[in-house]
TrEMBL record:
<protein>
    <submittedName>
        <fullName>NfeD family protein</fullName>
    </submittedName>
</protein>
<feature type="transmembrane region" description="Helical">
    <location>
        <begin position="7"/>
        <end position="25"/>
    </location>
</feature>
<dbReference type="GO" id="GO:0016020">
    <property type="term" value="C:membrane"/>
</dbReference>
<keyword id="KW-0472">Membrane</keyword>
<feature type="domain" description="NfeD-like C-terminal">
    <location>
        <begin position="85"/>
        <end position="142"/>
    </location>
</feature>
<feature type="transmembrane region" description="Helical">
    <location>
        <begin position="31"/>
        <end position="64"/>
    </location>
</feature>
<dbReference type="Pfam" id="PF01957">
    <property type="entry name" value="NfeD"/>
</dbReference>
<dbReference type="InterPro" id="IPR012340">
    <property type="entry name" value="NA-bd_OB-fold"/>
</dbReference>
<keyword id="KW-0812">Transmembrane</keyword>
<dbReference type="InterPro" id="IPR052165">
    <property type="entry name" value="Membrane_assoc_protease"/>
</dbReference>
<dbReference type="InterPro" id="IPR002810">
    <property type="entry name" value="NfeD-like_C"/>
</dbReference>
<keyword id="KW-1133">Transmembrane helix</keyword>
């Protein structure tokens, strides 16, 4: 039983697809695509040198195109703030007079927080909207 060269290339493509799925490394996908291209070259009657050249060219071209696209996509991911970082920059409503002493209270994200003024000379009265500049321990620093 003699197996044609294109079948071997397809077996190689499947073998390269397995680590692609396991490791999620797109390079293996490009090598698998190169192996499929090698199978097509073999099915069209190309010699072994042509098959290997097609495999290498398609694999390298795929990596050269996909790697910069993947890096650009990774760099464009939005930064998702969580915890106290998500509270910075939000607005709060003063519940109890806020000054630099830290004894004031604001309603921030549906919760009552202790608060102090960023500027020592500035005070805020109940009902006023303030911006949260920072979170210092369990105290919102507002302005």
């Amino acid at each position: 039983m003699d197996i044609d060269a294109w079948v071997w290339w397809l077996i190689g493509a499947v073998a390269l697809g397995i680590p692609l799925v396991v490791t999620a490394m797109p390079e293996f996908g490009m090598f698998a695509a190169g192996a499929v291209a090698g199978a097509i070259a073999a099915a069209l009657g190309g010699g072994i040198v042509i098959q290997v050249l097609v495999f290498v060219l398609v694999s390298v071209a795929g990596i050269a195109v996909v790697r910069p696209l993947a890096a650009r996509q990774r760099a464009q991911r939005p930064h998702l703030a969580s915890g106290i970082d998500a509270l910075k920059g939000r607005q709060a409503v003063v519940v109890a007079r806020v000054d630099a002493s830290g004894e004031g209270r604001v309603k921030l994200a549906g919760e009552i927080w202790s608060a102090r003024s960023l500027d020592a000379e500035q005070t805020f009265e109940p009902g006023q909207s303030v911006d949260v500049v920072d979170i210092d321990g369990a105290t919102a620093v507002v302005m």
